[in-house]
Amino acid sequence: MSFKLYFGFRTLKVKKKIIICNILSYFCSKIINLITNKLESGLIESQQLERFIFYLFENQSDI
Fold first, then answer.
1. Mean pLDDT, to the nearest integer, of 21-45?
2. What percent of the chain lies above the pLDDT cut of 90?
3. What is the pLDDT of residue 23?
4. Is 27:35 a contact under the CB 8 Å cutoff?
5. Which tens digits make up the pLDDT trace of 13-32?
6. Taking the model in full, what pTM does it have?
7. What is the distance between the alpha carbons of residues 40 and 33, in angstroms, rounded to a whole number?
8. CA torsion, points 38, 42, 48, 50, in degrees to nearest 10?
9. What is the DSSP-derived secondary structure letter of residue 59?
10. 35 near 49, Cβ under 8 Å?
11. At CA 20, angle to CA 25 and CA 14, rounded to 5?
């Protein structure tokens, strides 16, 4: 019986991780679409985007 409870708990933890990953994936795709639309419409210059991405990767060790 304890094995079933443990297995059920593990399954629940995995399902939570899958749900969280799906939510993060959704928001990431929305952000990418937003950036793409702004690049296409000319509201953001590609140089600004390059500097922002470089800043993110440069400061990744702080996270």
1. 87
2. 8
3. 92
4. no
5. 778 888 889 999 999 899 88
6. 0.55
7. 10
8. 70
9. T
10. yes
11. 125
